[in-house]
Task: structure prediction
Amino acid sequence: MNSDFTLSDRISAFNQLGIRLSNLSEDEKITLFQQAENQNPWFIHRFLEQAIQGIRVLLDAKALEKWVAPYEIKDPHTPNQVGLMLAGNIPAVGFHDILSVLISGHCACIKLSSQDTAFPLWMIHQLKLIEPRFSDRIQIEDMLKNKQAYIATGSNNSARYFNYYFWKYPHLIRANRSSVAILQGDESKVDLEALGNDIFDYFGLGCRNVSKVFVKNLAQLTHLLEALESFAWVANHHKYFNNYEYNKSIYLVNRTPHLDNGFLLLKESSDLVSPIGVLFYEIYSDDQELKTKLQDLNSKIQCVVGSPALDITGIISFGQTQCPLPWDYADGVDTLHFLGTLGN
Result:
């Protein structure tokens, strides 16, 4: 391992990767995007473009320096091998874990999701070209055995398996989470249209996507559906529309009350996670009761979206759920702190 591979060197390399992403030619994008979409039909070009823009924000030099500043990141004499089991629900969703492990000076041993290999492999290749010293700190593996630590993301079922399998190693395991929005009734059309991004970006497949809204009355739902008309294009995607039609048929057969605008179903439910093509809603009347409920559900919620005026810690403005910064950790668990606890 390169003992002179400093934190500044690593930050510089990632910043250059961000610049490389900014300067992708149209031909390069078409080739890369087609490979990714052929592998996973949910990864349409507009969302791959959005993923690139999000990663560019993560790799801004000033953002990286601000992120690492509170930590005492020491370059390990013998970097730990950290096994990463990445999800594949949205493009390069596990990139932040790769970034965290490498920035902290450890080795990233990566098991990619079969649904998302083209884009991550391209970025890893570019990173090695930019900084060859990363070559011996990044490994792509099919089986993650005998690592010093593990970070894994998956469903609730797989999380139970991960916790059982990795219990004797330092580990950070993430399970299912979803995001919610709070509507008070005084939102503008611009606010509600921005909420549409939180709902429909990546077809709602991410944990940062809003899958439920809390409203004070049914009239708010009518205003919401009207504001979401600009997202009718999602119905042109066959996989999304098949899910929408399937859920609609179930509700019709079972005579389940719901609202429908032709591409999104609104159904009342106390559950948090809605099916694709469905947005759950729940009516609330008391702000304090709602806050208590959100606190009780904290371990299942990734983001709470609403007006910044709401007295809720960490609330995110409409339209911003898919714009995390380096310090916006998944599940609220500080990945860099975890990595900093690993010995030499």
Remarks:
- The CA atoms of residues 215 and 221 lie 8 Å apart.
